[in-house]
């Protein structure tokens, strides 16, 4: 996964950028207000208050800069902020030789009269004065003439009140964090809604997500879709299983009921009907036994068995059963002893069902080839000489109660559980089972992992 596709990195960078934006905006706004002269009437211009920072810097420059720098500072104040500055000596003359407005002279006289930072309002302007002392000229009066144009009221209010600036920064950071949180939690909220819908029985609930890539939330959404699909498939399989079980049980029970009724009506022929009842009862018992075996394949592998010896025994049994039809089994062992871990007789039932399936479907006077080899573990193949299975049904033959068309084996009387039991048993051992068609029939292949082998 790429670094910037990580959900953690996105959250980290998001909060980091928000924090940086808040701090940066605070510093920039503070620098903006501190670098500009105050508006006329600013609280910092009142006699009992400390002058504004920008004014302090400007007053320092007026007191200490040489003439060239002094002229430059005065020109900058006029060009950038529209403030005209006059530096008057005790005789009311400007140090730079400029003509001094009458209002400026009146304000300088007030300052000479011991007034602390006096100010007056003239048409279109407001004037304030400060006492300064230059090394060469001695005590002087600095008169500031502010322009009529002022900043907007909101900017003035924000610049004058530090708490308002702090509140504004909190609001901005809150808005950014809200947007970031919405982006982060939207996918989680979608997942929460989908989970509730799935829990309420909407098994077709899915999340819209890209097929690959993305961050952890995309992976979580894909995992949810996979889980929902598997859950839907399994619940539907359970429903089909219950329907199939009901169907399989209904037929022998119906025959039992008919046979019992006929035996009661025709006592003279009760032996015939009792025999039929016995056959249907045995069929029910066999069906229930296979169902139980199919549901109990979940135990631990605590026993051992020689796979080669097991296959030899099962091939002998199948060869004995098929001798009347000319059906035989040939086992080819490409390895010696193959001892594997198992549980009870689970592997025996699995391979017995596979061989019985081959015995039922191979044609008369043919040989079923069984091969045991060492290929990435142990591999067993069983190849018959029957009609095969349609390609689109190769996976379905391992599901419960699934039976191929009876024309493949008209004499078959199975329940469609044998290969399903084999599949679950092989899965218990960590292996896999599959089927494919060959030129002569059907081949069932079982692959067992090497980690169940006993050294």
Automatic annotation (TrEMBL):
<keyword id="KW-0812">Transmembrane</keyword>
<keyword id="KW-0175">Coiled coil</keyword>
<keyword id="KW-0808">Transferase</keyword>
<keyword id="KW-1003">Cell membrane</keyword>
<feature type="domain" description="HAMP">
    <location>
        <begin position="182"/>
        <end position="236"/>
    </location>
</feature>
<keyword id="KW-0597">Phosphoprotein</keyword>
<keyword id="KW-0067">ATP-binding</keyword>
<dbReference type="InterPro" id="IPR004358">
    <property type="entry name" value="Sig_transdc_His_kin-like_C"/>
</dbReference>
<dbReference type="InterPro" id="IPR036097">
    <property type="entry name" value="HisK_dim/P_sf"/>
</dbReference>
<keyword id="KW-1133">Transmembrane helix</keyword>
<dbReference type="InterPro" id="IPR036890">
    <property type="entry name" value="HATPase_C_sf"/>
</dbReference>
<dbReference type="InterPro" id="IPR003661">
    <property type="entry name" value="HisK_dim/P_dom"/>
</dbReference>
<dbReference type="InterPro" id="IPR003660">
    <property type="entry name" value="HAMP_dom"/>
</dbReference>
<dbReference type="Pfam" id="PF02518">
    <property type="entry name" value="HATPase_c"/>
</dbReference>
<feature type="domain" description="Histidine kinase">
    <location>
        <begin position="244"/>
        <end position="452"/>
    </location>
</feature>
<feature type="transmembrane region" description="Helical">
    <location>
        <begin position="7"/>
        <end position="28"/>
    </location>
</feature>
<keyword id="KW-0418">Kinase</keyword>
<dbReference type="InterPro" id="IPR003594">
    <property type="entry name" value="HATPase_dom"/>
</dbReference>
<protein>
    <recommendedName>
        <fullName>histidine kinase</fullName>
        <ecNumber>2.7.13.3</ecNumber>
    </recommendedName>
</protein>
<keyword id="KW-0472">Membrane</keyword>
<dbReference type="Pfam" id="PF00512">
    <property type="entry name" value="HisKA"/>
</dbReference>
<dbReference type="InterPro" id="IPR050980">
    <property type="entry name" value="2C_sensor_his_kinase"/>
</dbReference>
<dbReference type="InterPro" id="IPR005467">
    <property type="entry name" value="His_kinase_dom"/>
</dbReference>
<keyword id="KW-0547">Nucleotide-binding</keyword>
<dbReference type="Pfam" id="PF00672">
    <property type="entry name" value="HAMP"/>
</dbReference>
<feature type="coiled-coil region">
    <location>
        <begin position="221"/>
        <end position="294"/>
    </location>
</feature>
């Amino acid at each position: 996964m790429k670094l910037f596709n990580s959900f953690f990195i996105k959250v980290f960078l998001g909060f980091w950028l928000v924090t940086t934006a808040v701090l940066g905006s605070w510093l920039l706004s503070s620098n903006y207000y501190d670098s500009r002269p105050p508006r006329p009437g600013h609280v910092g211009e009142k006699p009992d208050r400390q002058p504004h920072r920008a004014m302090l810097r400007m007053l320092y420059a007026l007191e200490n800069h040489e003439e060239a720098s002094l002229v430059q500072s005065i020109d900058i104040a006029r060009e950038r902020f529209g403030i005209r500055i006059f530096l008057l000596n005790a005789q009311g003359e400007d140090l730079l030789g400029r003509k001094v407005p009458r209002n400026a002279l009146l304000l300088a006289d007030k300052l000479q009269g011991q007034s602390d930072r006096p100010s007056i309002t003239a048409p279109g302007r407001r004037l304030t004065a400060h006492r300064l002392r230059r090394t060469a000229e001695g005590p002087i009066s600095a008169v500031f003439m502010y322009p009529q144009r002022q900043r907007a009221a909101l900017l003035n209010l924000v610049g004058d009140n530090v708490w308002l600036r702090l509140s504004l920064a909190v609001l901005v950071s809150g808005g950014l964090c809200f947007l970031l949180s919405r982006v982060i939690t939207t996918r989680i909220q979608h997942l929460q809604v989908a989970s509730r819908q799935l829990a309420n029985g909407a098994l077709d609930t899915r999340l819209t997500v890209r097929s690959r890539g993305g961050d952890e939330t995309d992976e979580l959404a894909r995992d949810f879709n996979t889980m929902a699909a598997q859950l839907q498939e399994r619940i539907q399989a359970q429903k089909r299983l219950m329907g199939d079980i009901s169907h399989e049980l209904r037929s022998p029970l119906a025959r039992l009921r008919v046979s019992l009724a006929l035996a009661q009506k025709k006592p003279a022929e009760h032996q015939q009907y009792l025999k039929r009842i016995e056959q249907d009862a045995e069929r029910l018992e066999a069906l229930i036994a296979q169902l139980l075996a199919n549901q109990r394949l979940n135990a631990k592998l605590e026993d051992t068995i020689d796979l080669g010896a097991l296959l030899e025994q099962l091939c002998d049994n199948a060869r004995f059963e098929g001798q009347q039809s000319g059906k035989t089994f040939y086992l080819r062992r490409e390895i010696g002893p193959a001892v594997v871990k198992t549980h009870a007789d689970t592997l025996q039932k699995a391979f017995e069902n596979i061989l019985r399936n081959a015995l039922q479907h191979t044609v008369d006077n043919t040989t079923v080839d069984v091969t045991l080899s060492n290929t990435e573990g142990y591999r067993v193949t069983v190849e018959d000489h029957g009609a095969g299975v349609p390609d689109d049904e190769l996976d379905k033959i391992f599901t419960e109660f699934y039976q191929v068309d009876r024309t493949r084996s008209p004499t078959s009387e199975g329940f469609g559980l044998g290969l399903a039991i084999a599949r679950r048993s092989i899965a218990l051992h960590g292996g896999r089972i599959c089927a494919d068609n060959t030129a002569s029939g059907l081949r069932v292949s079982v692959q067992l992992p090497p980690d169940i082998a006993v050294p």
